[in-house]
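Hi R.,

Here's the chain you asked about this morning:
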Amino acid sequence: MSKRPNFYRLLRLDPSEDSWPAIERRIEEVKRKSNTVSTDAAKGEERESQAFKIYLGEKGNPKADTIYVVMQDSAARKAEAKARREELLEEERLSRRCCACCRIAAAMPERNSPKSLG
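And the predicted structure, written out as tokens:
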């Protein structure tokens, strides 16, 4: 079974956004945009649109793991935001080792030791 995408990521929302009306507006914006994506669009854009449609579900449909069900529920929304913040931290951590000089510096703990600083 595949893990579903984080809805804050899918909606391109900041995880600090906790207002259901604001989130609902964003869902509607993304819904309109995904309905206008044509089959000749870039593959990434088309895949993103399809993923959104899969997880959108129907407004008012109690099926678990749809955007409406998760994002309307305050506790589930907070868990989703926490998971997105953790993803962002991990992405930031990985991006710090993006070049050779970063990897070399990370591999040289003696340069960062208290003895070398004093």
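The mean pLDDT is 79.

Let me know if you need anything else.
M.
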